[in-house]
Amino acid sequence: MTNGITLLDALTQALGADAILHSEADLAGYTEDWRGRYKSPALCVALPGDTQQVSEIVRLCHAHGTPVLPQGGNTSLCGGAVPADAGRPPVIVNLSRMRRIRRVDAANNSMEVEAGCVLASVQEAAAAEGRLYPISLGAEGSCQIGGTIATNAGGTGVLRYGNTRDNVLGLEVVLPDGTVWNGLTALRKNNTGYDLKHLFIGAEGTMGIVTAAVLKLHPLPTAHAVAWLAPESPQAALDILGLFQRACGSRLSAFEMIDSNQLDVVMTHVPGRKNPLAGAHPWHVLVELSDTGGDAELQDLLQEILEQASGLGLLHDAAVASNGAQRAALWEVRHSVSEGNKKAGVGLTTDTAVPVSAVPRFIDEATQAVRGLVPGLPVLIVAHLGDGNVHFIPFFTFDAWNALRDRDATAAAIRRAVNDVAAALGGTFSAEHGVGRSSLAEMEHYKSPVELAMMRAVKQAFDPAHLFNPGRLLP
Amino acid sequence: MTNGITLLDALTQALGADAILHSEADLAGYTEDWRGRYKSPALCVALPGDTQQVSEIVRLCHAHGTPVLPQGGNTSLCGGAVPADAGRPPVIVNLSRMRRIRRVDAANNSMEVEAGCVLASVQEAAAAEGRLYPISLGAEGSCQIGGTIATNAGGTGVLRYGNTRDNVLGLEVVLPDGTVWNGLTALRKNNTGYDLKHLFIGAEGTMGIVTAAVLKLHPLPTAHAVAWLAPESPQAALDILGLFQRACGSRLSAFEMIDSNQLDVVMTHVPGRKNPLAGAHPWHVLVELSDTGGDAELQDLLQEILEQASGLGLLHDAAVASNGAQRAALWEVRHSVSEGNKKAGVGLTTDTAVPVSAVPRFIDEATQAVRGLVPGLPVLIVAHLGDGNVHFIPFFTFDAWNALRDRDATAAAIRRAVNDVAAALGGTFSAEHGVGRSSLAEMEHYKSPVELAMMRAVKQAFDPAHLFNPGRLLP
Questions:
Q1: Positive or negative: CA dihedral B446, B449, B450, B455
Q2: B254-305 confidence digits (pLDDT tens)
Q3: Which residue among B442, B448, B457 places its CB closest to the CB of A461?
Q4: Are B174 and B182 in contact (CB under 8 A)?
Q5: Cβ atoms of residues B393 and B380 within 8 Å
Q6: What are the φ and ψ backbone dihedral angles of B291, each rounded to 5 degrees?
Q7: Could you point out which of A109, A449, B257, B287 has its C-alpha 20 to 30 Å from the C-alpha of B60?
Q8: ∠ CA A207-A211-A212 to the nearest 5 degrees?
Q9: How many angstroms separate the CA atoms of A212 and A209, rounded?
Q10: Do residues B443 and B475 make contact, with C-beta atoms less than 8 angstroms apart?
Q11: Do B356 and A108 touch (CB under 8 A)?
């Protein structure tokens, strides 16, 4: 099969020298994750220009028994997009050159795009046709559609529009043996056998390389209303969420909760951020409605529900944005969380989700569990409350962190304690970030043997040589 | 393994005599489909009362090498719920006795139910908590949740809420070797490996037996508005659909199109049905908006869009229902289609879907293709236009049908011609009915070899002995 020629030479012959990077300098941006936590060697980086080239690369790697690492914008939060630290160095197949918007079908509310399209450019192409592609997240200026599909990316639009999985109609995938599967259907209904696309969405590149996708589009909202609320408690926040859902249905597009510790960190460490409310309150919610039609109606609806909530004693205070600039200012407070936390100290970020109804109990019990390990340790809460997704962040000042004897062991014990509480409430240790490299131990610990065996059976059926993204996702 | 004891005896020992039916009289309602088109023998019918019993049945069948046929309400339109006509007679595992609503979690907008729950009872349990379970279809009074999951049932709520697949959060499944997979998560976000539930949704019982599910609930709409429209043409209907989507977003809950032939059949053959509009028009659309809030606002919005459509010359005429009784009367016309067609003659029903934008071209080209085979043959059109799902029905009077020389061959040739047009436009031969027994030849003909190989790999990984629902879904 390999005729004595090296894989590097074969790839260079097949794609041309400019599409294969292999000097150490050229590899640097591809073999290390953006936060600088993981770095491992690769054989080379291949930059295919089309699906056929991806297929050729995969066939050559298969023939040489060399691992393959699909890579998009390299924005993973869990080391999912850089090489593993064991085994043969892989060929990184970076999709950046495949960035054509192949087609926008406005009447069908769909668009076909190549995997290397940056998320923001997909949003723009949809908006140009009066449509919304609703996946939106911090990395949208650099992450690629293929990566968002491989990780089933979440973000701030999930409450109303679902995860990436819910916004993909069809896929084109190069399978682990190099075969191209053309599953680029744009249909809303198709009951002809197993829905194969779901095998690849969220598979973190372990089942093949997504090369293109048909995405679902939505009407572009034209009206927005945003308010900042101070609910009595997490339970009161949930009750208010219920009022909004009953009265607004799918107009409710965000319901984000933070606690006063988190707000204080933002106020103290991010210049220009102001407390949206006068006075101190223990809990804070940013609520957003969006709709077709005009702002005024939506604003009235928002006011009405807030009055209801006040009347029920659920609310300490609230501030409603009265124009676009005020709406943006409220969102800015919420979006400053990461920046503030980075400056303030060391946060042991978790990515738990529990049933929405269980969030108050989760916060109570996880706080107790953490305090049992480190008495008095502050916790920051950042929750996509409408999705039950709580970033529960035990937080150390730099001094406290540096004074710890065994930081790794302390961090691991704290995270395990938090994830244990989530698991006991029917929750998960990874709501939106994925497993990647950093949560393999959690997969082993929390997943049932039945479920792991099912996943391994799927993997074995499609990648029996275990060449795709080894050391990731499946322990 | 089997110790010489017959499977029937072993099942009777395990479940008790009252849970195993095997006399011919007892089997009658289980071995024949409700339309009387398919009937084949079964070894027996097992009526498990809980998941553990399902597991025992499957283990025993596995040990005896006997096929297993999961069965719900037996309402399949394509022979999917009765035994195949070849191979060993299966044990039918009928889930009717497993009909507990295990839990409704209103704050999480979810409910956990057993597979044998009748769809209507699930809708009622959700409504009792002020929530909507949005899957709604003709058979809802007798079909079971397990069957709707196995077939990814569609129906009239798809435009707004998606198919069954989109409304399932978690599953409990007895796998082909009898292992129970507890995947009953109620989470909105969970990125921890392959999303295994999608392997079973729409798998038509070939991958195991769904025994319970966690379903997604929605706010219960409180406002409704319905109108009957006469658009210029299918393209005009699409343009009007676009106006509604832009102006109403997800308030648009139905957009159903029929042609004048279909309306005439209903008028002529179903007593009490009246043409909603004065005068004759070639095309008809029923549009429904629904929302939280009150009827009046929604009615105004509907009127506004109709005026817009009129101004653009897209609309011949329109009638807006002004109260609940009038809304029901308009829906009654639409729901009388099956009854009318059954009385009027022989319709060769198809279940095609194409991208929404391609519907006008599909109707034109499919009509030409059919007329090329049978000059002048009338066609009835019943389309879930918002989903691109067209039931394109070449129609014979009873006399014309009886005068045909080879009815089977004519029907097959006509269906193939219609499905060919759909396929050429990126469409499918089964949008919502599934494959079952009746569309195996279409699977073989239209699916790519790559896709069939992928499906067979999945099947092989989970059911290597090929005992689950053999002769169905996969050719």
A1: positive
A2: 999 999 999 999 999 999 999 999 999 999 999 999 999 899 999 999 999 9
A3: B457
A4: no
A5: yes
A6: -165, 165
A7: A449
A8: 120
A9: 9
A10: yes
A11: yes
Contacts 24+ apart (CB under 8 A), A278-281: A278/A317, A279/A317, A281/A230, A281/A316, A281/A317
Token couple for A369: 């569990």
Full set of structural domains in chain A with CATH: 7-94 (3.30.43.10), 101-219 (3.30.465.10), 223-338 (3.30.70.2190), 348-432 (3.30.70.2740)
Amino acid identity, position A338: S
- Amino acid type, A414: I
Residue A474: its chain B contacts at CB < 8 A? 193
Per-residue pLDDT tens for A379-434? 999 999 999 999 999 999 999 999 999 999 999 999 999 999 999 999 999 999 99
Which residue type sits at A55? S
- Rounded (5°) CA angle A79-A433-B168: 140
CA distance, residue B443 to nearest chain A CA (Å): 7
Contact A451 B387 (CB under 8 A): no
Are the CB atoms for A41 and A77 separated by under 8 Å? no
CB contact under 8 Å between A292 and B193, yes or no, is: no
Instruction: Indicate the pTM of the whole model.
Output: 0.96
Long-range contacts of A5-13 (CB under 8 A, 24+ apart): A7/A43, A7/A60, A7/A61, A7/A64, A7/A66, A7/A91, A8/A43, A8/A44, A10/A60, A10/A64, A11/A44, A11/A46, A11/A57, A11/A60, A11/A91
Mean pLDDT score across all residues of chain B: 95
Nearest to residue A442, comparing CAs of A458, A428, A424? Answer: A428
Output the CA angle B39-B44-B45, nearest 5 degrees: 85
Nearest CA in chain B to A354: B187
Asked if B353's CB is within 8 angstroms of A187's CB, the reply is yes
CB contact under 8 A, A189 and B389: yes
Given a cut of 70, the residues of chain A with pLDDT beneath it are 1-4
Q: What is the pLDDT of residue B1?
A: 46
Spatial contact of A198 and A168, defined as CB atoms under 8 Å apart: no
**What is the ipTM, given to two decimal places?**
0.96
Which structure tokens are listed for A227? 């308010």
**Residue B410: how many CB atoms within 10 A of its CB?**
18
